[in-house]
Design a protein that fits this description.
Elements: H1 13-32, H2 36-39, H3 50-69, H4 83-86, H5 91-104, H6 108-123, E1 131-134, E2 137-140, H7 141-162, H8 172-189, E3 195-199, E4 203-207, E5 221-224, H9 226-233, H10 239-244, E6 248-251
Parallel strand pairs: 3-5
Antiparallel strand pairs: 1-2, 3-4, 5-6
């Protein structure tokens, strides 16, 4: 008998809304402190300055407000687990749009204020089931907001990496949702039960074809922390480097995930 199909993970919409607003608020407060010199620093995103990255973070939430202003599409086209794999095709368009936005908005404080005001107003009334015509495909507002935790958490980490000492905090609920979605995406890419991937305290998934583990200590185990996992899943960190540095602990012949990562470009 084939294994039962895993039920999709459920997210609490009210908590996700709060997390998105909280993390955007964390970023807004940090961007307000940046000096002109810091805004011109390079980032680990090729060709992007800190100013570009800061502008892009407003795009990550403005897509919610902008799509809520539009007519709803007739039906959903994209599930939450399909989203991580659908983003690469839009990378060039997003990069070009980011640079245009940064150039057109030298006053980042004003840009952030407008984005936060619009997002807060939209989320006060929009139902979770409302469909949005996003760049990657039509999806529900509830699902799209989970993807916003990924955008915010990943780019907050990029911002912290670019500006020494900035240390923008990561909202716990946003970090949890981002970690879980990317862990579930790995399980979707490599279905199976031979390897257990542990990302405490937020996620544990079974993946990779092979003998299914039933009880006791799994023969193939990967364990890491949330931010290391997110960097691996998004191509910010190479698997072999993470293992060599001790940021990932991998044991067992099926615990090498190098051929499965990154999940997002």
């Amino acid at each position: 008998m084939p294994p039962a199909k895993k039920r999709a993970r459920a997210y609490a919409p009210a908590k996700i809304r709060t997390a998105v607003l909280a993390q955007f608020g964390n970023v807004r407060a940090a961007v307000h402190t940046l000096t002109p010199e810091q805004l011109e620093l390079p980032t680990r995103l090729t060709g992007w300055t800190v100013r570009d990255l800061a502008a892009h973070l407003t795009m990550a939430v403005e897509t919610v407000s902008r799509n809520l202003d539009r007519e709803a599409p007739p039906k959903a086209e994209l599930t939450l687990l399909q989203w991580p794999f659908a983003t690469a095709a839009r990378a060039v368009d997003i990069a070009d749009g980011t640079r245009r936005l940064a150039a057109a908005n030298p006053d980042l404080d004003a840009l952030y204020a407008r984005a936060e005001e619009r997002l807060t107003a939209c989320l006060a009334t929009a139902p979770d089931t409302r469909l949005l015509a996003t760049r990657t495909g039509a999806m529900t507002l509830a699902d799209h907001l989970v993807t916003r935790t990924v955008e915010l958490v990943v780019h907050t980490d990029d911002l912290n990496a670019a500006v020494p000492g900035l240390a923008v905090p990561q909202d716990r609920q946003a970090l949890a949702a981002c970690t879980r979605l990317l862990a579930d995406a790995l399980a979707a890419r490599a279905p199976g039960g031979s390897t257990e991937v542990r990302i405490p305290p937020y996620a544990v998934v079974q993946c990779v074809e092979g003998p299914r583990h039933t009880r006791g200590t799994p023969p193939n185990v990967v364990e890491t922390d949330p931010l290391t996992w997110i960097r691996l899943a998004t191509g910010r960190l190479e698997w072999r480097d993470a293992v060599a540095e001790g940021a990932v602990r991998a044991s067992g012949e099926r615990a090498d995930l190098v051929g499965l990562l990154p999940l997002m470009g």
